[in-house]
Design brief:
7-stranded mixed β-sheet; alpha/beta; two-stranded antiparallel sheet
């Protein structure tokens, strides 16, 4: 069995609140301790031992996450508490207090067997990593045999079990494995020793996951940048992609009602809000899917986007009246159909902004006020069709 050993004892430096813990600082919506827990679960740890001197809500939340994933969670207050949790045949994955690490790093190292991850002194010592000899510092991760834990029983009860286990592992000749120094210089492996440091890690983490869309997709370009700026704070407050997708669906549903009861233009205006919220949900999902399952979020988001297109078609039919509703129906289906097709087939940059639902709805509202909604919709459909043709023609010429 593989057992994870994490800690929530170390306090944050430079913080007015003495109770602030490194493990409970937030990086992109999750505490460092939660990220360590998820890292441990991702490499197959079936039991989590959490070293703590108190039981705050954050520790309780860790327990709930572990148990939902089918792992057992144990609170360790004294070194002696580990005696009954870890047996000689176990492997212990120990993670330094406050360590922020990319999950794929742990996965690749664990696959190679037992190790003590190390970094050169000149690269990592100033970053707060613990020195283990003249040339190396501990990189905050190690996988050691469970029988070494028995030697912790001889230590004072208030000893730091992870620091002590590191010394024992070094004395027992567990392999010291150097890792890439770029992990530290690129902030993919770091110690969140302060709130400021956690903020720096969050910025790097977010930018590594989001390449903001270009302004040929105006709404997505805006929402990607909003997600980069405030997405981490939203995730920390529990506002994830699922809630944003649900909000998009709710706003769009209300806009459909507004179109029926108050007029199509009001429905189009409401659908702009729904389309914007849907794009924002997609942008935040790049950072973290947040609350709710991935499959459910995708389904809700797809329904919201489908309903936006439904509002466009339905609103055009209401505008056209009983004599022209068939023309409006055909024009609306043609427009949204070509817009959806362009996402699959590709579109020239010149025509791409037209498929943005916020832009599309704004143009339809303007044309409705001027009295030419159907003509505008037909021209927009022709523009998208021309964009598809130009894109495909360019692709063919490139391949020749």
């Amino acid at each position: 069995m593989r057992v994870a050993l994490i800690s929530t004892v170390q306090t944050v430096t430079g913080d007015d609140d003495d109770a602030g813990r490194c493990a409970f600082t937030y990086v992109a919506g999750k505490t460092v301790a939660e990220r360590q827990l998820r890292l441990a679960l991702s490499v197959g740890c079936e039991r989590i031992a959490c070293v703590t001197d108190t039981i705050p809500p954050e520790v309780v939340a860790l327990q709930h996450i572990a148990e939902r994933k089918g792992a057992k969670f144990h609170i360790v207050r004294r070194v002696s508490d580990l005696a009954g949790l870890i047996v000689a045949t176990d492997d212990v994955l120990a993670i330094a207090d406050g360590l922020f690490a990319e999950p794929d790093l742990a996965e690749s190292m664990v696959a190679g067997g037992r190790f003590i991850a190390a970094l050169p002194v000149d690269v990592a010592l100033e970053a707060g990593f613990e020195r283990i000899d003249r040339e190396w510092v501990w990189a905050g991760l190690m996988l050691v045999p469970g029988h070494l834990v028995d030697r912790l029983a001889d230590l004072p009860p208030d000893s730091d079990p992870i620091a002590a286990l590191l010394r024992i592992a070094l004395q027992s000749q567990v392999k010291v494995t150097p890792i890439e120094t770029a992990l530290v210089t690129e902030n993919r492996l770091a110690l969140a020793v302060s709130g400021e440091r956690a903020g720096e890690l969050e910025t790097v983490w977010l930018r590594s996951r989001v390449d903001p869309a270009g302004f040929s997709e105006p709404t997505r370009a805006v929402t990607d940048r909003i997600g980069l700026r405030w997405g981490g704070q939203w995730l920390a407050r529990g506002v994830g992609a699922f809630k944003l997708a649900s909000a998009a669906l709710g706003i769009t549903a209300l806009s459909a009602g507004a179109a029926w009861f108050f007029g199509p233009v009001f429905g189009f205006a409401g659908a702009i809000g729904g389309a914007f919220a849907a794009n924002l949900a997609a942008s935040v999902a790049q950072l973290d899917s947040g609350d709710g399952s991935e499959r459910t979020r995708r389904a809700v988001l797809a329904c919201a986007r489908l309903l936006v297109d439904g509002v466009i078609i339905g609103g055009l039919m209401l505008l056209a009246g009983p004599d022209m509703w068939q023309t409006a129906l055909f024009s609306g289906i043609l427009l949204v159909g070509l817009a959806r097709l362009s996402k699959i087939e590709g579109l020239s940059n010149l025509a791409r902004p037209i498929t943005d639902r916020v832009v599309l709805l704004a143009l339809i509202i303007t044309s409705s006020v001027l009295g030419y909604p159907l003509e505008t919709v037909q021209l927009l459909a022709l523009a998208i069709l021309a964009g598809l043709f130009l894109h495909n023609r360019t692709s063919q010429l490139t391949q020749v």
